[in-house]
Each structure stands twice: as structure tokens, then as C-alpha cells.
Design brief:
Number of domains: 3
Structural class: alpha+beta
Low-confidence stretches: 105-120
Oligomer: single chain
CATH architecture of the largest domain: 2-Layer Sandwich
CATH topology of the largest domain: Beta-Lactamase
Number of strands: 11
Strand content: 15-25%
CATH class of the largest domain: Alpha Beta
Number of helices: 11
Strand order of the largest sheet: 6-8-9-11-10
Largest sheet: 5 strands, mixed
Shape: rod-shaped
Order of helices and strands: HHEHEEEHHHHEHEEHEEHHEE
Radius of gyration: 49 Å
Amino acid sequence: MFTKSKKQTTLLRYWTTRYLITLIAGLTLLAAGSMWWIKQTTLENRLNLMEYLAVETADRVAQSNNNDDDFDRFDRRLEERARILQMENQPQLYITDLDGNVLNAGPPHRGPGGGPGRTAGQAPPEVIEREDTVQEIEVNGVDVYAVKTPLTVDDRQTGWVVVMQSKADLTNVDQEYRLLIILLVGLGLLGWIVIYFLSKKILKPIQDVAQAAAKVREGDYDITLDTDPRELEIYELVTSFKEMTNRLIQLEQMRAELLAGVTHDLKTPVTSISGLVQAVRDGIVTGEERQEFLDITLKEIQRLQTMIADLLDFNSLAAGAFTIRNENCNMNKLIQEISRQWQVTQNEPVDLKVIMPDHPINKMTDPLRLQQIMINLLNNSYQALWKGGSITIILSDARIDVKDTGSGIPEAEQAYVFERFFRGEKKKLKVRGLGLGLPFSKMLARALGADLILKESSHQGTTFSVVWDKAKR
């Protein structure tokens, strides 16, 4: 009896949980990379715009009268640029002479990083001294980016235009981060919902198969499954399980028939022997009739011994307690001898033909076990023959075919001819037996390194083949 472990969980929960963890990890890495990229791209774009602003200011200063109205216009332009760049604080603009002394003296306001605004004085010396157009410096403990461009009047440089903004303002992209987080969270939820419902849809037929398997385990074979799923693997799973269930139903029927058949086949000769012996013992028959009763009794005993021997041989081979003695055999001579011995032991003449190749065929095999296989195949062919029919044995390098012109095996029974204890409807009426001949022969063939197959069967006859190597079809 199977018990559910505490560590076991449903496939739906198992895989959706792991998918969600993987999704969160992937989206977290994607968010980190995207945030870094947004930050760097935004910084680059804003620095480019600051460069443009510095060049634009230099051109306008060169054309202006350098009065307060012009500086006010610059202030308004800075405010507009700050709004475009989505920054809380506008950039700080300095117009200096060549030594860095500040020339513009507009109304004071907050400068980079929230520090003092522009006033009369001097721009940071390192900005003027360095040749770089874009610089990262530190002002009053605040990281600041400075962009400068030369101020030229009448083709002569008269000073510098310096635009400064704190690094914090330039890299402040909270709005973009919020949009990114909303997008990634939305994608995560959507992905989890999609995988949840897809997993649920895929797992539905698997759950149906699991429930059906539980019913089969309890002996209930009456199951219903959807045998038309779109997924190939699930279709194969459901179809295979359905075929297995049908096979179990048939095997269960065969088991019931076997019990009745074996009981009948064993009981009949015992009953016959008992009646015959009792008749002889009580003196009911005398003389020649008594001798005839004894002969019939011996035949019934032999038939009973044969059935018991079949059971013992089959069980021995199935348990592996069977000896195979391979030797190098001339298959041409061996098949000729087996067919001749079988033919002379038949009560009536049999039209038996043996077709051999022109060249000798040698194989490592056990001649006694091969003889058992061939005799069983010949007996089956003989039992299926119509009056005037024939049997043909065809030997080739890779196989031995036993072909008859008998009634054939019904198509519905062909898949079960190698099942132990299976007997066809026609054969049940004609011959006593346990249905072990073909299964026993197939096991013997495999022990010899070959296989026994039903090559073809129709109303025109049947062909069984003992096949070596890869030539099984």
C-alpha cells in the first residue's frame, strides 16, 4: 500500500512555485540591469543637453549687451531645460572671464546640490584649469558635474560659460524607476498567472491518469479518459495507459478462462482415467474391450503427463533454471533431421517441404532446444491445416520460416498468441492444451539469442519465424 510522504506536493504547486521563484530572480536581475542602464543613459543625455545649453548660452552672450534682462532670460531658459530634463533643481550657470571670475550677477538662487547660488566671485578653479569639457568635481562635499564651453566675441575668446549640476540631480530618475518597477511587477504577475493556468491545463490529463491508475490498482478497470489531447506526449501517455488498461482487462479475462480451461483440461483426463480403471476393476469390461480400455487409459495418462511437463518446463525456463548448451551446428542438416523426425511420427501423411539455400549455414545454438521450437511450430501448423494443405520450412542466413496453408489466426487474436495460457477460440474446440506452446517457444528462442515472431497470418495461412540478429521484420 502506497503512503503519501510529507515532502510530496502537487505538480501544480511544485512547478508554479519554482517558476515564480525563477521569474522573480530573473526579473530582479533584469530590473537591476535596467536601472543601471536607465541611470547611465539619463546621465549621458542630461550631460549632452548641458553641453548644448552651454554652447547656446555662449552664442547668446556673445550677441547680448550683458545686462540683467539678458541674465533673466538665461534663468528662464535654465528653468525650461530643468523641466525638460525632469530635474527638481535647475542647473547653475556661470559666465566667467578667462581667469574664472564670475561676470554675471543675476538674482541669487540655489546652486548645485542645493548650495549657494551664483554670486559675484570665482568659478571652481579646477573647472577652468582642466581641458576636459565635461568634468566631475566636488563642491562643498557634493559631487557635481561641470560642463564648460569657451565664450568667443569677434573671434576672440573672452571667457567661459560653465553649467553645473549636482550628480544627484542628474541621476535622479525616480519616475523612470517607478515605471520600470510597475512594468516588471505586471510582467511577473502576468507570467505567473499564465504559467499557472497553462500548468493546470497540462496537468489535468495527468491527474486523470493518476486517478485512473488508483482505480486500476483497486481492481476497477472501468475508466474514462480523454484520448484526444493536443500535446503529443500527453496523448501518448493517455493512449498507452488506455491500451494498458484494455490489456489488463483482457489478461483478467484470460486468467478467468485459464482457471476454467486448465481445470477442465486436467479434470477431463483424470475423470476419464478414473472411469476406465473403475470399469476394468469392477469387471464391467473383459477380453479385447478390457485391453482397449487400458490402451485408452494409457493415452490419457500420457496426455496428462504432457500437460504437467509443459507447466514444469515453462516454470523452469521462466525461473532461469534451464540449461542451454550451444554448439556449432550445420543448420541445413539440423533442419532436415528435425523435419524428417517430425514427419515420420505423424499418424497421417503430411505434405512437408523444406527449402534450403545452396550454401551451408552454421550457427552457435542448442540443437535440442531449437528442435523443441520447431516441433511446436510444426504441430501448430498441422493442427491448423485444411485437408490437402501443406507446410513449408524455409531456411535462410538470418531466419527460419514455418509456413502453412491452414485457416490462419483471427486478427483480433494475433496480438495475444505469445501470451501464456492464451488459446484461440478455434483451437479450444480442436486440441487440448494449456496455451504454453508458443510462449515457451518464444522464451526458448530468446535464450538462444534469437526471437520468435508471427510474421503474417490470414485465411490463406500463417507464417512463424525464428529470427536471428536484427532481421526481425
